[in-house]
Design goal:
- It catalyses: ATP-independent breakage of single-stranded DNA, followed by passage and rejoining.
- Keywords: DNA-binding, Isomerase, Topoisomerase.
- The protein folds into four domains: about 5-165, Rossmann fold (3-Layer(aba) Sandwich); about 175-230 and about 490-625 and about 680-695, Topoisomerase I, domain 2 (Orthogonal Bundle), CATH 1.10.460.10; about 235-295 and about 420-485, Topoisomerase I, domain 3; about 310-415, Topoisomerase I, domain 4 (Orthogonal Bundle), CATH 1.10.290.10.
- It is built from 19 helices and 18 strands.
- Helix 2 packs across helix 3 and helix 15 packs antiparallel against helix 18 (about 600-610).
- It has helices at about 15-25, 95-110, 120-140, 155-160, 170-200, 215-230, 265-275, 300-310, 315-330, 350-355, 365-370, 400-415, 490-500, 510-520, 540-550, 560-575, 580-600, 600-610, 620-630; strands spanning about 5-10, 30, 40-45, 50-60, 65, 90, 115, 145, 235-245, 250-255, 280-295, 420-430, 435-445, 470, 475-485, 490, 525-530, 530-535.
- By secondary structure, the chain is an alpha+beta fold.
């Protein structure tokens, strides 16, 4: 009797190799494909108590992409509005993807069963569905199943092999919907503003692409909004009364319960009244000591990992995700793309903690947890697919940033398994005439999780003994002047938090959108002291101010539109909305926004004119009208790159490669954005490197030539 053959397809070459090692006991035959980094691993093992012949291979992220037919390829071949309804074709991403497709197609001819081993998330389901289509073209009778796992470790891989599930086609449909929306909307807006505004403003040149993306726009908008808050901040003076008591050679600072007053006369009247009687007498009216605690952290999610990487490890969110994915591919940590912040009640903590006892840095702490009943905090989120990020095996020998990220994941996991820090907090309240002042002290009794988690701080604050109803004469009573301070520019960690709260991007794509607005030169990083801030360039400000001045009901510059789209995609995943209904609703909505933009074009031009030099002083609207009605192209076109050309696409290494549109991605159709500002009159209209009202920022902004070569084919 002929042995059944099973084809297993993973999302990355490195994962395919690890699965082959685990299922074969490291006894397999490796065969080459037409691409040197795609290998086919062959061996025999048992499935459902039957011996089967297994072939494991892989893709490198997405194989297929959506595009318009060739007649729409030239940027000036048609009006951008046509792209909202133009036909769409599915094609392989490039020659390498075509070779990968052929490899799978050829194997599928001779197998009876296909098992999908792509990552267990939306993108993985979509990639899996494309693999199924390829195999069914070769073998219409092939049986399909889906392996579900969260870590590349023997227990999970063997369980996924023995208990396969089915592909979630709703999730695949959601990704397909998002890809089509990003393609249509991105192409239309990017072509319109790039071709039109380059004719009007000379600094934009012939090679600059002004991109649009429905996640990039709001991301840029958050940066600009904070920038305006800083730049437009008006400092106000305030006054307060401060009392110091000396006891046991310790100066105790008492804060005024009124806080601060913005009226100097008011504050001075109260202060003079207090100082009228000498010596001044303070009465202790309250002494309260109570137990307090500093709560241990929640289990680790993708968003929290990105924020922590920026804040504590000083690694960008994009780099953090690359490192985390490499650690996952090597089998050191669990799947790093998860919204789940609660462990299942059956989760096996003991084995994972035991594995960490050998480390000289945290081994003793891990050992102390083994005899305890482990309870962790439960957050409010579960994606029903993956547990929180945690170490799955001990990883000695790591270096550099890999070591730092792995250490953070381990310490966070051990902190979650520990207890809250505990202490006693004492509050002393005193009265001087009719005014009340408060001092607080803290005595830490148990460090608990703080012993392994240095990223949190909780410090003792010694407070001498005070007795209820006692009286004393303060050492000092002063009236002090202060001044309100502006907020700081956004850090990357803060931006991640804002995007997450507003539903811009998913936990798996937030870092990509931040990277894109930096790559597009809409935003730049600026170091101040030991912090790195995100600050808009002149180009970013021009985009935001131009679009925001149009006055949309649902602005392109705000998160609401994209958040609604994300909700629609979630409804497709849940099976409560159909793909076509979501496509029609969103395409019509963005078409309307496009036409409003064109009809209000002067506002957009005026926004750019604050920062760049007009090339044409009359007929600018006519140029844009010609663009909108154009039906034939010219020879002066940039390469057509406003497409999601690098969605989960590998580059020949054993890792995922570039995943620029993973999750709710933006078509690589470069994004641009706007928000209203009153700073126009303060900004030089020289364009390009115009002064921006602050000495240390003069000369910043968009630089049209930076020696980076042609950026038309960037993703």
């Amino acid at each position: 009797m002929e042995t059944d053959k099973v084809l297993c397809v993973a999302e990355k070459p490195s994962v395919a190799k690890e699965i082959a090692k685990i299922l074969s006991g490291n006894r397999f035959v490796m065969r080459n494909s037409r691409i040197n980094y795609i290998k086919n691993y062959e061996f025999k093992c048992h499935l459902n108590r039957k011996e089967v012949q297994v072939i494991i291979t892989s893709v490198c992220g997405h194989i297929n992409a959506l595009d318009f037919p060739s007649q729409y390829a030239k940027w000036e071949s048609c009006s951008p509005t046509v792209l909202f309804d133009a036909p769409i074709i599915k094609k392989t991403i490039d020659e390498n993807a075509e070779s990968i497709r052929e490899n799978i197609f050829n194997i599928a001819h001779s197998v009876s069963h296909l098992m999908i081993w792509t990552d267990c998330d939306r993108e993985g389901e979509k990639i899996g569905s494309d693999i199924v289509d390829i195999c069914r073209m070769a073998n219409s009778n092939i049986n399909v199943s889906r392996a579900r796992f969260s870590a590349i470790i023997p227990t999970q891989i063997k369980q996924a092999w023995e208990l396969p599930a089915q592909l979630d086609m709703n999730q695949a449909e959601a990704v397909s919907t998002r890809m089509e929306l990003d393609l249509r909307i991105g192409y239309a807006f990017t072509r319109y503003q790039t071709l039109g505004l380059r004719q009007i403003f000379q600094e934009l040149g012939n090679g600059k692409i002004l991109s649009y993306g429905s996640c990039q726009f709001p991301t840029l908008g958050f940066v600009v909004e904070r920038y305006r808050a800083v730049e437009n901040f008006i400092r106000e003076k305030f006054w307060k009364i401060h009392v110091v008591a000396e006891r046991d050679n310790i100066n105790v600072n008492f804060s005024w319960d009124k806080g601060v007053l913005f009226n100097i006369n008011c504050c001075n009247a109260i202060y003079c009244d207090l100082m009228m009687d000498q010596p001044m007498i303070a009465t202790v009216v309250e002494v309260v000591t109570k137990e307090t605690r500093k709560y241990k952290p929640f289990p680790l999610t993708t968003v929290e990992l990105q924020k922590a990487g920026c804040r504590f490890l000083h690694i960008s969110s994009d780099e953090i995700m690359k490192i985390a994915e490499d650690l996952y591919n090597k089998g050191f940590i669990s799947y790093p793309r998860t919204e789940t912040d609660q462990f299942d009640h059956n989760f096996n903590f003991q084995d994972l903690i035991q594995a960490q006892t050998q480390d000289p840095r945290w081994g003793d702490f891990a050992s102390s947890l083994l005899d305890k009943r482990i309870t962790t905090r439960k957050g409010k989120h579960s994606d029903q697919a993956h547990p929180p990020i945690h170490p799955v095996q001990y990883a000695p020998g790591l270096t550099g940033r890999e070591k730092a990220v792995y250490e953070f994941v381990v310490r966070r996991f051990l902190a979650c398994c520990s207890d809250d820090a505990k202490g006693n907090e004492t509050t002393v309240k005193i009265r001087i005439k009719e005014e009340y002042f408060t001092a607080k002290g803290l005595v830490i009794l148990e460090n608990n999780y703080l012993d392994v988690y240095p990223y949190d701080r909780w410090n003792d604050k010694n407070l001498p003994n005070f007795i209820l109803n006692e009286t004393f004469t303060p050492k000092e009573c002063t009236m002090e002047e202060g001044e309100t301070t502006p907020p700081e520019y956004l850090t990357e960690a803060e931006l991640i938090n804002i995007m997450d709260k507003n539903g811009i991007g998913t936990d798996a794509t937030i870092h990509e959108h931040i990277k894109k607005i930096i790559d597009r030169e809409y935003v730049e990083k600026q170091d101040q002291g030991n912090k790195t801030y995100l600050v808009p360039t002149n180009l970013g400000l021009a985009i935001v101010e131009g679009y925001d001045s149009i006055g949309f009901n649902e602005s392109l510059t705000k998160p609401l539109l994209r958040a609604k789209m994300e909700q629609n995609l979630k409804e497709i995943c849940e099976g409560t909305r159909e793909k076509n209904a979501v496509l029609i609703e969103n395409i019509n909505k963005y078409r309307e926004m496009f036409l409003i933009t064109h009809n209000s074009l002067q506002f957009l031009i005026e926004g750019f004119a604050k920062y760049f030099t007009l090339r044409c002083f009359g007929g600018c609207d006519d140029n844009m009208d010609m663009l909108l009605s154009r039906s034939s192209g010219t020879n002066n076109n940039p390469r057509n790159t406003d497409t999601d050309s690098h969605s989960r696409r590998g580059r020949g290494s054993g890792t995922r490669g570039r995943r620029s549109s993973r999750g709710n991605g933006e078509n690589d159709i470069r994004d641009i954005r706007g928000t209203r500002s009153s700073r126009g009159s303060r900004v030089s209209k020289r364009g390009g490197r115009g002064s921006r009202g602050r000495g240390n920022r003069a000369g910043r902004g968009f630089r049209s030539a930076r020696g980076r070569g042609n950026r038309d084919n960037e993703s």
